[in-house]
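User: I'm writing a tutorial on reading structure tokens. Could you give me a worked example: one chain, its sequence, then its tokens, then a sentence or two explaining what the tokens reveal?
Assistant: Sure. Here is the example chain.
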Amino acid sequence: MPAPETAPPTQANPDNLPPGQATSDDLPPGQDASGALPRGPGGAPASAAVFRRLARWGSRLDLDDAPDRVVAHLKSQILSQLGAARAGYAHPLGRRITQAYGSPLQDDPKHAVHSLSMATLCLDFDDTAYAGHLSHSTVNVPLMYAGSLGLDGRQLLTSVLAANETAARVTAAATLGPFRGQTAGHTHLAGAVAGRLRAENACADIWANALGMAFSVPTWSLARGFYSTDAKLLVAAVPVQIGLSACDGARFGLTGPEDVLEHPQGFLHRFADIPLPEEALAGLGSLWHTETFSYKIHPGSAYTSAAVDCAVELHAALEGAGPGDIAEVVVEGSIFTAGLDRIARRHRIGPGSSVAALNFSLPYNVATALLTGSLLPADLAHPAVDRPDRWEVAARVRVEHDPALSRQALLATAPLGQALRRAGERAEAWVRAIDADAAETLPPSWLEPESDFRWATKNLGARVTVRLRDGRELRAERHSAVGAASGADGVDHAALARAKFLANGGDPEAVDLLHRLETLGPEEVRRLVRLALAGPDDHVGRPPAGPRAAGHVRDTRKGTAMETSVLEEAYAGLITAATGAALGGRESAAGGRESAGGSGESPLPGERGTDWTLAHIALSDRLLSSTARQVLGGAEAGLDNGPAMDPKAIEELTSTVDRDVLVELVRRNAAEFVGLVARIRQDQQATPVAVRLVGDEGQELFSGAVPWGEIVRMRAEDHIPGHTERLRRIARAPRES
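And here are its predicted structure tokens:
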């Protein structure tokens, strides 16, 4: 559909770039840092050696290029992955992996990472980014090579960062295709190459040739083995080995095609229905895929996580009721949850099934959580899987598709939203070919891709209803899974990762070492790896008494930039309130869109409604981002809030889209604005901005020069908190009968 005049404009990229961000030298002719590529015949990029550009950027990437919040995610990612490793090796399947492929503590790093990649994947206990199950290569490879290369903590973190950003971008370029999630083995071609070569401080030429070689022989996983047998274990381990072999060859002069990703006879031509090579280069140095991570607290597919969370919540309410008292369990979910259930039911799943089949069985996982109040690695092994009560309840679990939950999922950043936004009008036909009903839930095609991932979302929600034979009905609902990426949940990912690691027998000393990883020297890094992966038969003695190994204390390096913590906190509260407004207004939205002066609820006297407020905020932040770019570029800066107060503009926006789209606009426009503010230097705070403010009826309220820093302060301390409180007041107001 055509874009309304109030739709967000295409994201611009100012020339004033922070450290680590792509420069014109890193981009093909005619491309800007947003990743947009010039097009040739058939829509293919006219000139885009994507791997060469990624290689030049990734090989020079430094830990100080990433914001502190991204570094915090790196630590949580590593610790959570180590928790998944411990859970995997402790499981009977993990013990067979050790027998076949050896311990992760063996001397040869290539063999060690082969074993580790199977163990971290075997229980589906791995975490997910917007594009890919990255950690099987991006964490495992640097960890296993850290000892032999003598990496200190900063170098280890930098290697994981470079691997994440490379692998996620390449995965995103092929997301609209036949392979996503764990089936996308090509994620680990890129992750292994980037993780090892950044750890070795290899030059861009070696990177480009290694990536070209690896992606010339990508793996193609088959559903027959993946969904129901232990063959699934190879889906990451094999591409990791291919990537490491490509590194060996490239170091000694073997070459690969740099353009193999986007070439008409290359990777994307075979592995993507809608190739998105621009996703591989979009926002280098400003759009951090690492902060899109969602963290699992239960083993199993991310498409089942929210339903399991609901079942855990309902367990207490079922106290005193036995399996025979449960008449039916209805799980409502998005197309992702319903689609996985359809695939899993093609296989006969029972007590003798493989771990892979059990992981994908939503009925078994939900039944287990309902009856026990949890879902643990031990629930995927004997004797737990032999319990007849679980299978009795599992047989009564029915899964239904909820279009509203699909819409939430497709609006979110992950697992597909960002790629769908990048595909634009091409996305509808692709979704329709998969599920015609789901295509009806797609958000408007004019929504732009996100330019900042600080509030990335993964809204794979679920609703679980338990009907008892005595007539009672119990229900729980979640907008997203516990630990899922979301700026509205306020989830402490560091606490989740720590709890996961310790629950699976991890040593508390390893947690402490990981917490201060950037300060560790090479010997302390070796100790961290040994402690974190040591089994009951592995003895890791205490380090000798004496001074701590010399580490490198990370320079905050942010002193020259504007402080954004208060601004971020204000917007985080706003996004929470806005998300609550969207969920609370779902029923009223179904009955028709509100007008610009309404709210869908009973408006409070003299106060604007929810949708007016959301539209006003989204439009205001769009204007502020434009002003921020002017300040960044040293141009004469101005701010006129008239377009954000214009009744016609607000009416056009609120009458065109539903409330969930308004919330999405608020989220992404806020992220873009805060991201721009974070790049403005302290000495630019005094930049005068010509400000004109108007009221509801267009009357001028103020006209004059205001320092940029004061505009940001008022936004953080007055305007956004005021809008947040308004949304909360409306939510608390009694509804008209």
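What the tokens reveal: The beta strands are 326-333, 397-401, 462-468, 473-478, 637-640, 688-694, 700-707. The chain has 31 helices and seven strands.
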